[in-house]
User: Fold this.
Amino acid sequence: MALKATIYKANIELADMDRNYYDSLQLTIAQHPSETPQRLMVRLIAYILNAHEDLQFGKGVSDEDEAAIWQKNYSDEINLWIELGQLDEKRLKKACNQAKAVKLYCYSSSANTWWSQIENNLKKFERLSVEQFESSTCDALVKLLSRNMEFQCSIQDGQLWLTSGEETLLIETIKLK
Assistant:
């Protein structure tokens, strides 16, 4: 018997002053059985950082032909392809060939080692940007994970302030490329 996805709901009040984007998001997030809570929360934050009316979750973990998150236009062209983790060059090349822009959000304690090994190979991908979440940020995000989540988010000057109940986190990424 195959394991089923765990479903999470997130209601988010978003004020992104950097991009002049304001929205109330009601997201349903399916956690694949092989997806860690850390990856799920990084995926949610990546969605928030790039929120757009056409942004949607892809099949990601369960389908290698889709991004973790992507934004397609009405012609089904991919404007933005978002990936998570420490991917190989082949996967990123495919994304760069299909999308106008590609963002990779890496996380975990081994991200620095991965980056030092692949950095030179990724310089050739002009459409690619790479950002890293600190391990401490990911650990704090996992503590906020619940089946029904309520967040207030404010983004200004590249900083995301995430509030859930009495807890407020400052979430910043380190730009690697």
The mean pLDDT is 90. Helices lie at 37-49, 89-98, 111-122, 135-143. The first strand starts at residue 6 and ends at 16.
